[in-house]
Write a structure and sequence with these properties.
Blueprint (H helix, E strand, L loop, with lengths): L18 E8 L4 E6 L4 E8 L1 E6 L2 E6 L3 E4 L5 E5 L4 E8 L1 H4 L1 H4 L3 E3 L2 E2 L3 H16 L4 H19 L1 E4 L2 H24 L6 H7 L4 H12 L3 H19 L4 H7 L5 H12 L10
Antiparallel strand pairs: 1-8, 2-7, 3-6, 3-8, 4-5, 4-7, 6-10, 9-11
Helix pairs in contact: 3-4, 6-7
Length: 274
């Protein structure tokens, strides 16, 4: 099995313009991005379609014209809920882009619906990137400063102390070991004690920091990983449902069915009909 790291380090090599921009295009209902976290600020502006993002396990349904902001050290994942889901993604290191802004340690509102000013700024930024006329980086940088200033003045939900930010970063890095282990060993029996030992803490303390970061208990997270893998196997239709249940770590078929319905809202057999 391969090692899955949920921490993502973006390398933005252009010091003059420490920004990465691209359009993420998904042509059918499918995962948009796997669960991960990073230290940079990431914006997803929905150009068309519908999707759902989970930020620290909280769901946000997005559609055309919506802006999703992923703050530093925020665990997130997403999936397309429609065909032709396109999103403009803007990523930048706040320290490199503006130390003054980075020092505020702010948390932006996660989901902004249909703000005309944001739409105009992002459309202009994207057009500059597409045309690449003389001075386009300077023009883009100016518009991004304008966008960040607008967000700072209108969509800040709280300021985070440097100590709080450091603590959250530390906990996520510790949990990365745990999450990678779960993704590699989900088919085997996994206990809280076993996971706690990976980061050398008590079971009680481990359960607390895990739920604080993930929004659910370790057992629920393990089951969710198993169920998502089961869904993928069901789509392939190469194994029976009972074989899939065992393959992903469920020894009790009835429990597998109950957990699957709880997560997806329908029985595993329904996937065969999709």
């Amino acid at each position: 099995m391969h090692d899955i790291s949920l921490y993502e380090k973006k390398i933005i090599s252009d010091k003059e313009f420490p920004v990465q921009m691209f359009v993420n295009r998904i042509d059918k209902p499918t995962p948009y991005c796997p669960s991960h976290w990073h230290e940079h600020l990431e914006l997803h502006y929905v150009l068309q379609g519908e999707g759902v993002f989970y930020l620290n396990r909280k769901p946000f349904n997005v559609e055309e014209g919506d802006l999703l902001i992923i703050n530093s050290n925020e665990l997130h994942e997403g999936e397309s809920c429609s065909y032709n889901f396109d999103a403009l993604v803007v990523i930048f290191e706040m320290d490199s882009f503006s130390r003054e802004i980075a020092n505020f340690n702010v948390l932006f509102q996660s989901h902004i619906k249909c703000d005309n000013h944001i739409q105009k700024l992002l459309t202009t930024i994207y057009q500059e990137e597409m045309d690449r006329n003389h001075g386009y980086k300077l023009a883009m940088k100016g518009k991004i400063y304008e966008l960040i200033t607008y967000l700072l003045r209108n969509y800040v939900i709280e300021k985070q102390s440097a100590r709080e930010n450091t603590k959250r970063n530390k906990n996520l890095k510790r949990l990365n070991t745990v999450l990678s282990y779960i993704h590699d060993n989900y088919a085997e029996p996994i206990t809280n004690k076993e996971l706690a030992n990976l980061i050398h803490v008590s079971e009680f303390h481990f359960s607390h920091i895990f739920k604080d970061a993930m929004g659910m208990s370790p057992l629920n997270y393990v089951n969710e990983v198993r169920l998502k893998k089961a869904f993928n196997l069901l789509e392939q239709k190469e194994m029976t449902i009972s074989e899939i249940a065992i393959a992903v770590g469920f020894q009790d078929y009835n429990n597998f069915g109950r957990q699957f319905r709880r997560l997806y809202g329908y029985a595993p057999s329904h996937v065969w009909e999709l």
